[in-house]
Design a protein that fits this description.
single chain; 2 domains
């Protein structure tokens, strides 16, 4: 099944006559808008790919804080960029647990929404002053901004295929 968008005309008979070019442009626009935009057969798998990718990124960032930088080192870094150091002890498990929940598809929308503030702070407070490119010294804000937008997109899309939350919800009905 494919989802399509149709244009509805607000044709008013008292409108002035349209030129041939205007009619051709409107016909072309109507055809362009009537093309399938979302393949509902594959969309759940695209959502799954986004969900698992985001989950893996969150788990990786959380484990990086634990295994490479250590929690005290992460707390020190947080303090150096003007954030409370104790937040490292909150953000790290939230990233790991939230990432795992995304991977398996439990409360996908709400987990995505809950993880977004971490990325907003990372974009503005940590990487914002380093320019746009992530290859800049200190890492620019392009990656964290895109990561944040993708998290909001996941919130808007929901679970996708093979999500435990969807399976549990269907069994409870």
């Amino acid at each position: 099944m494919k989802l399509t968008i149709h244009e509805f005309s607000n044709h008013n008979p008292s409108d002035t006559p349209k030129s041939d070019r205007q009619r051709r442009d409107e016909a072309h626009r109507s055809i362009r808008l009537a093309k399938p935009t979302i393949d509902l057969g594959t969309a759940p798998y695209a959502i799954l790919l986004l969900r698992v990718s985001l989950g893996m990124l969150f788990v990786a960032h959380g484990l990086l804080k634990v295994m490479v930088f250590t929690l005290p080192g992460t707390a020190q870094f947080f303090t150096s960029v003007g954030l409370p150091g104790f937040m490292a002890y909150i953000v790290t498990p939230v990233e790991i647990i939230g990432g795992l929940m995304l991977i398996v598809g439990i409360y996908t929308r709400w987990v995505s929404l809950a993880l977004f503030p971490i990325l907003l702070v990372a974009t503005v407070k940590v990487h914002g002053g380093n320019g746009w490119l992530f290859t800049n010294e200190g890492g620019g804000w392009e990656f964290s901004a895109f990561f944040g937008v993708a998290t909001i997109v996941q919130f808007l899309l929901g679970d996708g295929a093979y999500a435990l939350g969807s399976i549990w919800h269907k069994q409870r009905r």
